[in-house]
């Protein structure tokens, strides 16, 4: 029996990559493609929409009905879309993969609460490369914990609506863990005007938006007379999509709980 996967946000940049990734995956099939009524692509066959042979499923907006016929829902939408999907998955006891970013602390707490009843993978970045980089960053934080200022720079396409990226924030958490700091109290997200000299205990974030950049992240450890840079550059969304499908397959046998991509990858 193949795993029945539904995609919430099917007409989006990631939704379209996910349709392709599900089509290419062994042991999985697309069982629903959900997007807001009337959005470009709405009503089309999900396969045809992405240039594949027709799959016999049209993009529709009835999320509750769709979830009833799924094993796992993959959500790449906006925080409010994810929370609607979360409530329905919880009601129907279905597993959920969340790729959406930009959640408030309260929204993250709602996801964690739902994960006491259903299995959820919540990851700001589903690429293998970024998840390996997170491990390297924790180690770098441990080793470069004296005399190095940490700055995180990220660049994304002109359509991205949240900043800093979820990945940049996860990278900040990984470095902070290595350094023995709490990102909540040491992050600096804005600088303008007379800022004063840099506080050595801070982790700074800078955001670039423009063009079609898929996702670039650099973490700089700036010392006296040298600097270390750990960077990841995505050139295709297929790495994220394949990772999310892998997470959906992993969730099929997982117990209720809140998981991240390192759990899926065994890192
Ligand atoms: N974790 C990861 O590895 C990655 C995460 N992301 C994240 O995934 C999310 C989506 O990115 P992307 O595909 O580029 O975005 P897009 O805007 O291209 O697509 C979003 C999709 O969700 C729909 N949508 C928007 N708002 C809602 C809502 N409130 N309820 C239901 N559906 C909604 C959109 O429809 P409409 O167009 O009509 O609004 C569209 O179908 C972002 O948060 C992004 O940061 C992106 C890449 C990788
Ligand atoms: O919106 C995007 O495009 C991306 N969002 C994710 C994030 O916020 O980290 C992951 C990736 O960088 C692409």
TrEMBL record:
GO-annotated biological processes: diaminopimelate biosynthetic process; lysine biosynthetic process via diaminopimelate
GO cellular component terms, semicolon-separated: cytosol
Catalytic residues in the record: 156 (proton donor/acceptor), 160 (proton donor)
UniProt subcellular location: Cytoplasm
Pathway it works in: Amino-acid biosynthesis; L-lysine biosynthesis via DAP pathway; (S)-tetrahydrodipicolinate from L-aspartate: step 4/4
Reaction(s) this enzyme catalyzes, per UniProt: (S)-2,3,4,5-tetrahydrodipicolinate + NAD(+) + H2O = (2S,4S)-4-hydroxy-2,3,4,5-tetrahydrodipicolinate + NADH + H(+); (S)-2,3,4,5-tetrahydrodipicolinate + NADP(+) + H2O = (2S,4S)-4-hydroxy-2,3,4,5-tetrahydrodipicolinate + NADPH + H(+)
Dihydrodipicolinate reductase C-terminal domain boundaries: 129-265
Assigned protein family: Belongs to the DapB family.
HAMAP family: DapB
Protein name, as recorded: 4-hydroxy-tetrahydrodipicolinate reductase
Organism: Stagnimonas aquatica
């Amino acid at each position: 029996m193949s795993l029945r996967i539904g995609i919430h946000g099917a007409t989006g940049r990631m939704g379209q990559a996910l349709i392709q990734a599900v089509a290419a995956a062994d042991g999985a099939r697309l069982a629903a493609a959900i997007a807001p009524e009337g959005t470009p692509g709405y009503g089309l066959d999900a396969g045809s929409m992405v240039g594949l042979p027709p799959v016999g499923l049209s993009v529709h907006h009835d999320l509750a009905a769709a979830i009833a016929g799924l094993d796992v829902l993959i959500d790449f939408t906006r925080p409010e879309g994810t929370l609607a999907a979360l409530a329905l998955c919880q009601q129907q006891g279905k597993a959920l993969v969340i790729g959406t970013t930009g959640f408030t602390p309260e929204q993250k707490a709602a996801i964690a609460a739902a994960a006491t009843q259903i299995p959820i993978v919540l990851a700001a970045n589903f690429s293998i490369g970024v998840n390996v980089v997170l491990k390297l960053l924790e180690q770098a934080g441990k080793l470069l914990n004296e005399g190095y200022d940490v700055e995180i720079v990220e660049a994304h396409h002109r359509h991205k609506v949240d900043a800093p990226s979820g990945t940049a924030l996860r990278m900040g958490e990984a470095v902070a863990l290595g350094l023995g700091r709490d990102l909540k109290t040491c992050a600096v997200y804005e600088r303008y005007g007379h800022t004063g000299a840099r506080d050595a205990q801070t982790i700074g974030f800078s955001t670039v938006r423009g063009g079609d950049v898929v996702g670039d992240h650099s973490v700089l450890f700036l010392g006296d007379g040298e600097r270390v840079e750990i960077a990841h550059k995505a050139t295709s969304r297929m790495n994220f999509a394949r990772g999310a499908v892998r997470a959906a397959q992993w969730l099929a046998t997982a117990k209720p709980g809140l998981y991240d991509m390192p759990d899926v990858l065994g890192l």
